[in-house]
Design brief:
With 203 residues, the protein is mainly beta. The protein is built from one helix and 15 strands.
């Protein structure tokens, strides 16, 4: 076989028999004394080692993966109605979302009985009526009121008053509330403004 020096490009004839079973052999160039590595091209490529079923490394890796899978915590499913607070009653198949809507055959209104413009009447015609001094359904002139202070929620079978995280709070019978159920002639206070809920039968 002909070999060529990578340094001086000189070519020489090399006896392949000198390689024997060695994958390569290093010789020195007679001209520039550079080392030339002669690759044995007659050797067949070795086969990749066959996987041994008893190979300890493979077994350990598989065992480790099984342990990880077994220790993985189970997925927990959470019902949506468990996360929304008192909008729902209870959990499970018996959980029923309260019906939202105007009470049947009833007319609702808020009478302003204390504060600015007493005697004013505000009809409730929506399932959610927001009260405050901003752009809301019932606007009051009260510096102690937040822009969106509280709201009236109609649940068909009950009427709720909910404070909307106001600065000065919402009060029923002088008790500060977050949510309270109202009845006919129930009174509540926002700042210096006092309302009374009026429920009348429709003719």
């Amino acid at each position: 076989m002909i070999i060529q020096c990578h340094s001086c490009a000189a070519k020489y004839k090399f006896d392949e028999a000198k390689l024997g079973d060695a994958p390569s052999k290093k010789v020195r160039c007679p001209k520039c004394k550079a080392v030339i590595e002669v690759i044995n091209t007659n050797l067949k490529p070795s086969k990749p080692p066959e996987k041994d079923d008893n190979d300890q490394t493979f077994t350990a890796s598989a065992s480790s993966r099984k342990v990880e899978d077994s220790e993985r915590p189970p997925t927990t499913k959470v019902r949506l109605d468990a996360l929304v607070g008192d909008t729902y009653r209870g959990m499970g198949k018996e959980a029923v979302e309260p019906e939202i809507g105007m009470p049947k055959n009833k007319k609702l209104s808020l009478a302003l009985i204390g504060g600015s413009n007493p005697g004013s009447i505000y009809p409730i015609v929506k399932t959610i009526t927001i009260i405050g001094r901003g752009e809301v359904d019932v606007v009051i002139q009260d510096v102690e009121s937040s822009r969106q202070h509280a709201q009236i929620e109609l649940m068909a079978d009950r009427i709720l008053l909910r404070d909307l995280n106001s600065t000065n709070g919402t009060f029923v019978n002088d008790d500060k509330i977050s949510t309270a159920e109202l009845d006919n002639h129930s009174e509540f206070r926002i700042g210096t403004t006092v309302f009374m809920l009026i429920i009348t039968d429709l003719e």
